[in-house]
Write a structure and sequence with these properties.
heterodimer; A: about 350 residues; Sulfite Oxidase, Chain A, domain 2; 2 domains; 10 helices; 13 strands; B: about 240 residues; mainly alpha; 12 helices; about 80% helix; globular; disordered N terminus
Chain lengths: ~350, ~240
Amino acid sequence: MLIRLNDPSAPLGSEITPARAYLNRRQVLGALTGGAASLAASPQAALASGAASASAPQPATRSILRGDDPKAQRLDARPSDLSTIERPTSYKWVTTYNNFYELGTDKDDPARQAHRLRVRPWTIEVDGEVNRPRRFDIEELLKLAPLEERIYRMRCVEGWSMVIPWIGFPLAELIRRVEPTGKAKYLEFITLADPKQMPGLRSSVIDWPYTEGLRLDEAMHPLTLLGVGLYGQVLPNQNGAPIRLVVPWKYGFKSSKSLVRIRFTEQQPVTSWMKSSPSEYGFFSNVNPGVDHPRWSQASERRIGEDGFLTRKRPTLMFNGYGAQVASLYAGMDLSRFI
Amino acid sequence: MARRLHRFTQAWICRDSFDSDAQSPLSTSRTVSPFLMARLRGLVFILAALPALRLVLWPVFELAGANPVEFVTRSSGTWSLVMLCATLALTPLRRLTGWPHWIRLRRMLGLYTFFYASLHLLTWVWLDQWFDLQAMGRDLLDRPFIAVGAAAFVLLCPLALTSSDAMIRRLGRRWGVLHRIVYLIAVLAILHYAWHKAGKNDYSEVMVYALVVIGLLGVRGWAWWGRRNRETPSSARVRR
C-alpha cells in the first residue's frame, strides 16, 4: 500500500498535466491547427479529438521519445503516469557521460569501451530465499511484463543529474514470479565481471563483481524498475545492457548495471561501495540534500545539458523529488544516520 | 654600476647555477644569443598559454562535454600542477644538460602556475559555489581537501608577488629562502589532488604526478646532501 504524505510544497494533483497529455501536446496542437486550417467551422471537434487521444486508455504504443542510434532495436512501451514532465537529457549525454567502472572510471570510458560487452546470450540467476529459484533468459525477461516508458530524474552522487526516459518493467513483476520465502528481507544485485569484456576490471577500484542491494520493500516499490531500454530503444551497452536496475530516489550507483544474478537474503548485503569506501555511504544511499558527501555538499546539483556554463546549480530534492511516493518506506528511521 | 646590478640580479635568479657547482653565471650567460633566448621564451609562453585558450574556447563551442564546469575545474587544476612540475624541473634539467639557461624560463612558468591556480580557484568560487560565502566557508572547514588546496593557493600568492626584478633585488638573500615555499606548495597540491580522487579509489593519475614531484624534490634533496658533505671540510678550512 502507498501512503501519500501531505507535502505542502507539492503541486495539487489537479494542477498537474498528466504526463501522457503533456507528451501528446504536439498531437493536440496539431489537431487544433489542422482543424483550424481545413475546417474553421468546427474547432470544437478538433479539441474533442485531441482531448480524447489524451485521456483515452493508452494501448501499448511506440514510445514517444527516440534515440539517435539508427541501428538500435526499437522497443514498444506504453507511457506511464509515474513519469516526470521534465525535459529529458539529450540522448547524446545520456549515452556518453556516465559511470560504469567495469568499462573504465572516466565518464567517457563506458561509451568508448561499450563494444566489448557481449549482451547475448544472457541469463540472470535468481536464487536465495525464494521458493522458485531459477535462471531467466533475457528474451524471456523482455516479455515478462508489459514494457513501460518511465521518465525519471537520475541524481548521481557526484553532484550532477539527468532526466532519462527509461524503458522497463517493475522489479516487483519478477519478484512475484520467484515467490520470496518468509526469510527474504533483502535483495543482492550482482553485475557481470568478465575481464575479457570489461577492461575496467583490471583496476582494483572495487572488489569485483559490483554488488548492490535493496530492502525487499524498496525492491517491491512500483517506482523500482528493471530497465531494458532508453529513448525507445534497447539499452545501449554503456548504460548497463541488457538489463539493469533503476531506483530513482537513490543515488545513481545503487542502480546496478548488466545484472547476472539477483539473490534474496535474510541479512543485509554488504555492497561494493560499503566495502571500498565505508566512510562515504551506507546501505540506503537515498538522495538527501541534508547529508553531505565527505568531500562535497549534496545540497545542490547540476543538470547535465541544461544548466549551462554560467548557471547556478539547482537545489537537490529529498529522495530526488520522489518523497511523496517513498518517504513512507523510511518512516521512523533517522535518515541522517541511516545513510 | 648598472651592469653590476644586472649581474647581481641574474645571479639571484640563477642562484642555484653557481652556488652548487662553483660555476660563474656570467661566463655561461654569454654563451647564448639574446635572440635565441627570446625565441625560446616566446615558444614556451605560447605553449603554456594553449591550455588556457582551450579552456576559454571549448565551453563556448560546447566541446567540453556534458559538464563544462567540471571540465574547466579539472583542466585548470591539472594544468596548475603541470606548470608547477615544469617550474620545478628547470633546475634538475640545468644540472642534467649542463645548459644553465633553462633557469631563465623559471619565472614565466612559475607565474603560469599562479595563473592556472587562480583560474582553478575562480572556477570554484564562481561557477561551482556561485559566490556563496557561507557555503564556501563550510566547505573550507568541513573538507580537508579544499582546505589543503586553498592553503597551497595562499602560499603561492607571496611567490607571485615577489617575482619581479625589483622584489628580487629588494629581498636579496631572503628571496631564495621565501621561494623555498614552492616545495611545500608542491606537496600540498599533490595531497589536494589525491584527496579529491579518493572517491574513485583510482590513484593511477595521482601517482604519476606524485612520482614526478617526489623525483623533482628528491633530486634537490640529494644535491643538497652531496653539497653539504662536500662543503663541510672546505668551510671548516675557511674558518681556520
